[in-house]
Amino acid sequence: MISFVLTRLLRAIITILAVVTFAFVVLRMSGDPAQVMLGPDVPQDVIDAFRKAWGLDQPVWVQYLAYLKSIFTGDFGVSMRDKASALDLVLERVPATLQLTIPALILKLVIGIPAGIYAALHRQSFADRGVILLAILGFTIPSFVMGLILVLVFSIILGVLPSGGQDTWVHGILPTITMSIGGIGILARFSRSAMIEVMGQPFIRTASAKGLKWRDVVWSHALPNAAVPIVTIVGFMVGSLIAGAVVVESIFSWPGIGRLLIVSVSNRDLAVVQCILLVIAATMVVSNLIVDLLYGWLDPRLRSRAAH
Amino acid sequence: MGAAKSNLVELRDLKVAFDGVQVLHGIDLTVGRGEALGLVGESGCGKSVTWLAALGLLPGKAGVSGSVRLEGRELCGSPRSTLESVRGGRIAMIFQDPSSSLNPVLRIGRQITEALALHRGLRGDAARTEALRLMDMVGIPDARSRFDLYAHEFSGGQCQRLMIAMALAGEPDLLIADEPTTALDATIQAQILDLLIQLRAETGMATVFISHDLGAVSQVCERVCVMYAGRIVEQGTVEQLFAAPRHPYTRGLFDAIPRIDGPRQPLVPIPGTVPNPKHLPAGCAFSPRCSRVLQSCHTELPPLVPQGDGRLLACARPVPLALVIHAAKPRTPARIVESALQ
Ligand SMILES: Nc1ncnc2c1ncn2[C@@H]1O[C@H](COP(=O)(O)OP(=O)(O)OP(=O)(O)O)[C@@H](O)[C@H]1O
Ligand SMILES: [Mg+2]
Fold first, then answer.
1. Where are the domains of chain A?
2. Helical (H) or strand (E) element with B233
3. Taking the complete model, does pTM exceed 0.90, yes or no?
4. What is the pLDDT of residue B4?
5. What is the mean pLDDT of each successive set of 10 residues along chain B, which is 342 residues long?
6. Residue A132: its pLDDT value, please?
7. Structural element, H or E, at residue B293
8. Domain B1-90+172-342 classified CATH 3.40.50.410?
9. Euclidean distance between CA atoms B162 and B115, whole angstroms
10. Which residues form the ABC transporter domain (chain B) (predicted)?
11. Is A117 helix (H, G, I), strand (E, B) or coil?
12. In this structure, how many other beta carbons lie within 10 angstroms of the beta carbon of residue B210?
């Protein structure tokens, strides 16, 4: 058990390190922050002074080591643009992002999973075909297209919902729906196939042969087994909650982390971008860890395997 | 109707089709109270489907017709709640692959107490005590400490014992054992058979024993039904069939048994293979493989009719009685038949 936790932890650290390194290298290769921040017509000595001030005159590996050292001490750098702590800037935006992503996640769960399970239990029925069709539409249409369609229909044609901003909760409706549709489709399809797979297993026939009511066969025998694959995909969704907000926040000018990321990338605001990527990586790693632990809880076979 | 009164279950003209392909062509079968009936035949002849259909356990796409009566009460086409009240409580069923027939994510004890709550209203400590008694009864050593384990922590043979314990929980009048030993190795097979025989003696429940293994059938059962391609072709007491198999198919099954006792004879497998239910031969389905085939066998289906000695037989040219004496010794302890049959 201890080695199980240790390997997971080690893997988590390596993942985060890889993301951080990748972000660091790519950012430094993809344009000069001094140029972007200061504009095109700035004398060379101003640029040099800027570089020196931000440590950009150092060799890249020196910068990298300094960066690693500072994040291990909890210092995530300073925004070149706002001259404020990058971490504070990011954390400031977290509530706005959660205002969209949490309701979207709830929608995915409460619509996607029951729809998939219902379809699995009523195979070949009208409802089943409907669920499959909607699910495929849901996850094949990219979220920026979906967002634009929704804006066109509800903001422009019908004029019932605002197309951008964060003033009231009504402003959150379209972005939340946009964000959840793909996930609903994926979860519906996934839950459906997981449930169909489980319902075909011999132990389900045993449960029926025992005389259990159909409802109890489904609830106490099938669902706990279908939960294992479903939890996997839910964990993946939780892990990509923030990453998934990027596109939607930009479409709906929602002032969350996703939009901050876009703005900071185009400004080459290194510390902020790195900090956001670190937060995204950390969410993914933590949710993976939780999923791994849930596995053991849901499936005793995995539990005893992990123990050895 | 004195005979009918003692019948527990009666199948009449039971037919099953999957996606328009008929796999059972009208099965007539009765199981008496406390009786042990064997059902034999090659793989795919419809042994499992017969009883799954009787209990309404086939998938929705299966078309089932005919009559299944439990003490006169019709089950075929009856509402789900009626079937649910019969399953487990009146007729229990155990299956071929015990390890995957137990729920992998629920504790064993919970799976047994669930049946106890359902059929006998036992809960809490009473249920636990009774479940432990059942686990003890089917020979799970140290039941108390293994109550909270999961299926994968038991061996295949122990899983089958647990399945039997679960079946006993409902105190059924009939236990359908669908090839309960096929997935187990030889010594464990023998133990499970002994357990089934002993439990039947103790509880008086009727048993339908589905098997490839004629030796095992002769140990467990009094009466045997031989099925071929979705029909019963011969039915009689174990003694009758072992002393004198009349249908060429039954005879073929015996000839394919490796004999441990008596003179060593070469094994004679039945030539050819089981027909695909989609393309069943005209006339008698066994005719293309039959050594005693007549011209008429290819066109006319022989009905299942009672013989002088009480057995039922569906054959236009049965093996003559004189020829088959000593064909096989009754109660051959040959459990290795299965490989020859498959
Ligand atoms: N769910 C199903 N869908 C379609 N066909 C099926 C289904 N179950 C059984 N069959 C078909 O019904 C026929 C009888 O099957 P059944 O399982 O009763 O055979 P069996 O005599 O029990 O064989 P075995 O000894 O292999 O268990 C076979 O041809 C099989 O292919
Ligand atoms: Mg079978």
1. 93-268+281-298
2. strand B231-237
3. no
4. 45
5. 68 95 95 95 94 93 94 92 94 94 96 96 95 94 94 95 95 95 87 93 95 90 95 95 93 79 69 91 93 92 92 93 54 40 44
6. 94
7. none
8. no
9. 12
10. 9-254
11. helix
12. 25
CATH class of A93-268+281-298: mainly alpha
Q: What is d(CA A208, CA B84) in angstroms, rounded to the nearest whole number?
A: 8
The β-bridge relationship of strands B305-306 and B231-237 is: unpaired
In this prediction, residue A212 carries a pLDDT of 96
**Max Cα separation, chain B?**
68
Which residues of chain A are at the B interface, by a Cβ-Cβ cutoff of 8 Å?
201-203, 205-214, 220-221, 224-225, 228, 298-301, 304
Buried (b) or exposed (e) across A19-54, using 16+ Cβ within 10 A?
A: bbeebbeebbeeeebbeebbeeeeeeeebeebeeeb
Ligand 1, atom nearest to B212 Cα: 25
Which residue from B23, B25, B249 has its CB within 8 A of the most atoms of ligand 1, so it is best to mutate? B23
**At which residue do the structure tokens 């209990």 appear?**
B55
- Residue whose Cα lies nearest atom 8 of ligand 1: it is B49
Q: Is any ligand 1 atom within 6 A of the Cβ of residue B49? A: yes
Q: Where are the domains of chain B?
A: 1-90+172-342
Residue with tokens 């099925």: B227
Q: Is the dihedral of CA B251, B252, B256, B262 positive or negative?
A: positive
Tell me how close the Cα of B106 comes to any Cα of chain A, in angstroms.
Answer: 8
**Residue A58 φ then ψ, to 5°:** -75, 160
Fill in the amino acid letter for B35.
E
User: What's phi and psi for B139, nearest 5 deg?
Assistant: 85, 35
**Amino acid A74: pLDDT:** 86
List average pLDDT for each run of 10 residues in chain A, which is 308 residues long: 79 89 85 79 86 85 90 87 90 93 95 96 93 93 92 91 86 93 95 96 96 95 94 90 89 92 90 92 89 86 67
Q: Beta strands B7-18 and B21-32: pairing type?
A: antiparallel
**What confidence tens digit (pLDDT) does each residue in A263-305 have?**
998 888 889 999 999 999 999 899 988 888 888 888 888 876 6
Residues of chain B contacting A221 with CB distance shorter than 8 Å: 103, 106
Q: Do A206 and B103 touch (CB under 8 A)?
A: yes
Q: Which residues of B touch A300 (CB under 8 A)?
A: 104-105, 150, 152
Min distance A109 CA to chain B CA atoms (Å): 22
Alpha helices (runs of H) in B68-185, residue ranges in sequence order? 80-86, 98-101, 108-120, 124-137, 143-146, 156-169
Taking only the tens place, the pLDDT of each residue in A37-81 is: 888 788 888 888 888 888 888 888 888 999 999 988 888 888 888
Q: What is the CA radius of gyration of chain B?
A: 20
Kindly state the helix (H) or strand (E) to which residue A87 belongs, with its residue range.
Answer: helix A86-107
- Own/partner pairs, B74-81, CB within 8 angstroms, 24+ separation: B76/B14, B80/A214, B80/B56
